[in-house]
Amino acid sequence: MEKRNKTRVILFPLPLQGCINPMLQLAKILFSRGFSITIIHTLFNAPKSSDHPLFTFLQIPDGLSESQTQSRDVLLQLTLLNNNCENPLRECLTKLIKGSGTEEGGEISCLIDDSGWVFTQSVADSFNLPRFVLCAYKFTFFLRHLLVPQLRREGFLPFPDSEAEDSVPTFQPLRKKDLARIMGNKDQAEPLDDYLFKILETTKPASGLIVMSCEELDRDSLSESHKVFTFPIYPIGPPHIHDVPASSSSLFEPDQSCIPWLNTRETRSVIYVSLGSIVTITESQFLEIACGLRQTNLSFLWVVRPGSVQGRDWIESLPSGFMDGKGKIVKWAPQLDVLAHRATGGFLTHNGWNSTLESICEGVPMISLPFVWDQLLNARFVSDVWRIGIHLEGRIERREIERAVTRLMVEPEGEEIRERVNVLRDEVRRSVQRGGSSSRYLDELVDRITSF
């Protein structure tokens, strides 16, 4: 651990699990380089400060009602948060800057916030505070999803059913059916396009973009970035494998009994199933996944969040005797430990970027079941570009689940996939080692922050 250099960095995460994780991982990386860390956060989905005792946490009001915090409309939540949080953030920064320069506080160098905050550039400018934008997506998605309003204006939708499997030249390797899901329905079009336009316009004036990916996974899109952005871009990921002390950044309490249970299983014999922190499924889909897993006759560890099965509290829909010694169902899992465990042989995943990175870094092949947003692009890279997984193509049917798991875990095809993911794992892990691409970009980022 380096000596504190009395320079303080302010971080402001978007209050979604997939955004909080990389922001807190970045905080740990910068702390290891000697910076003092202050996290400004909303009341909604507040991170657990006791897990990070060396950071300063400051909570601001977000104005969300209880019903709004429970909404499954993420775009609505993000719109409300952006509308409600500008003044509270401004007031919080005013107090911080007044105390800046004291022995305890340290000089404030910059603000780092998520790309989903669209008011923070003007706030940072009012304090003459350099602002870095954190991109928690695969950079390919970040660059391309800003084109959605243009594609809509050009009449991408609708298209004939016969073209559903066609590729989208401006959004490779997506297929038209994938992009249609990202673009949403008519009611979502105007608010989504307005939000994406604001993201683009408020990212352009920033001092730089911090990307939680690496050259090895995003080389093509990084080489094209100069067409959109003129500032430096720092691909320093994957953040969780940098040499910093581990700590939890989960909004949910992981069930630690997963690990002793995995200890009793054979090497690479368990299929791990988790659809992330936001996805919900119908009871019918839940039962199809359950039956598909059981029919494989393989061991499985399945994360089912309370409330993630629509109309049910948890897993009461399962028939009695379902587990039958083969499976274990938990409300949340210590995912990094599960993926790193010798018994885990595959991952049935929604392909959120954090989960995709974590699986690659442990050499665990995937079965892709994406639902929304960047998950659809990540899944295409997994199945079609890197060829380190099997895509379910949205078919949540017991026979499809059983077949995909069997192909991955038992058949020769699975061994070929495993060999490819191990090669990619090694390439990605080298990126954070001294002299690797992510390590070099991190050095550049540290130098830039220190220069302010």
Description:
With 452 residues, this protein is an alpha/beta fold. It folds into three domains: 7-136 and 204-243 and 432-451, Glycogen Phosphorylase B (Rossmann fold, 3-Layer(aba) Sandwich), CATH 3.40.50; 142-188; 258-429, Rossmann fold, CATH 3.40.50.2000. Helices cover 43% and strands 14% of the residues. The chain contains 18 helices and 13 strands. It has helices at 17-32, 66-69, 74-84, 86-98, 120-126, 139-145, 148-153, 176-183, 186-203, 215-224, 258-263, 283-296, 335-340, 353-361, 374-385, 398-409, 412-431, 437-451, and strands at residues 7-12, 36-42, 56-60, 107-114, 131-135, 208-211, 233-235, 270-274, 299-303, 327-330, 344-349, 366-368, 389-391. The strands form two sheets. A seven-stranded parallel β-sheet has the order 3-2-1-4-5-6-7, sandwiched between helices. Helix 12 (283-296) packs parallel to helix 16 (398-409) and helix 16 (398-409) crosses helix 17. The two termini are 22 Å apart.
